[in-house]
Amino acid sequence: MARMTIGLLHPGEMGSVLGALLTQRGARVLWASAGRSAATRSRAATLEEVRTLRELVEASELILSICPPHAALDMAQRVAANRFAGAYADLNAISPETARAIGRVIEGAGARFIDGGIVGPPPATPGTTRLYLAGPEAGRLASLFQGSALEVIVLDGPIGAASALKVAYAAYTKGTAALLLAIRSLAIREGVDAALRQEWARSLPELASRGDKALGGSIRKAWRFVGEMEENAATFVAAGLPSGFSAAAAEVYRRLAGYKEATALPSAAEIAAALAKDKQGN
Questions:
Q1: Which of 1, 104, 110, 236 is deepest in the core (most CB within 10 A)?
Q2: Which residues of 152-172 are buried (b: 16+ CB within 10 A; e: fewer)?
Q3: pTM of the entire predicted model
Q4: Which of 114, 133, 119, 226 lies closest to 178 in space, CA to CA?
Q5: Ranges of H-type helices in the chain
Q6: Pair 19, 37 in one domain
């Protein structure tokens, strides 16, 4: 059997690990280096480099898109403009409607579309991470990861089902993380943070650790979560449901986006100041 060639857009923290898993399972995994950073090049060390997106498209049978949510549609349009005719899997944290729009772009160019959503961290060990897929080609992609650290679950639903599941999951995980960041910031600014944490320890002991986890796990990725929470809000609106909590989470992460390149995590007090910047007039 011929070795499958897979294009990866792009080898970030998640994409590089998925690319490495596919390489370990015998696939040829390409990435396009034009305009990418030294950090990306380091993450892509186990993959095969091509220079341009056009080269990647022309060589690939399957393309995996793993990029910031706000760039997902543009990425699909660029691939379609290069006349890609294989299978295209969007694995980004986008709304079902955005997934369907991407599907129309990809299929309109003559390719086949797979809807996907990832739950969990980059998969280092089995049991930590699930990839949900939907669409006629989902089974083919699922088979490529069989026996790897990534569990793949094919949903019995149309294009958009995998994205909808990811939205519902992230509305809670990233939404409550943003809420805890805002709550701690309010308590700090009102001078009751220590008292609040003492009360949490007595009546809601899990919140103290979850709040600390939100401080450590969300700050450097806040810039990426803005688009994801906006996609969340759009999904709730489309379903006729209140969307304000997802929109508020997007704003929390937007105000923290400047910590993307931070070498050290900010303190809770610094986060409180950043979240209250509008009141401060900054």
A1: 236
A2: bebbebbbbbbbbbbbebbbe
A3: 0.93
A4: 226
A5: 13-24, 38-43, 53-59, 72-81, 96-108, 138-144, 161-189, 193-203, 205-218, 222-238, 244-255, 268-275, 277-280
A6: yes
* 99 plus 182 within the same structural domain: no
Domain count, the chain: 2
Please give the full DSSP string across 204-224, using - where no structure is assigned.
-HHHHHHHHHHHHHHSTTHHH
Q: At what angle do helices 193-203 and 161-189 cross, to 10 degrees?
A: 130
Tens digits of residue pLDDT in 123-135? 999 999 999 999 9
Going by the DSSP 8-state scheme, the letter that residue 68 receives in this structure is -
| 22, β-bridge pairs | none
Report the CATH number at residue 96. Answer: 3.40.50.720
Residue where a domain terminates, one of 114, 130, 155? 155
CA–CA distance, 177 with 164 (Å, rounded to integer) = 20
**Picking from 44-48, 146-150, 209-213, 251-255, which range would have the lowest pLDDT averaged per residue?**
209-213
Number of CB atoms found within 10 A of residue 65's CB: 25
DSSP SS3 for 153: strand
| Distance (Å, whole) CA 240 – CA 261 | 37
Q: What would the two tokens of residue 250 be?
A: 């997007």
Token representation of residue 25: 């399972």
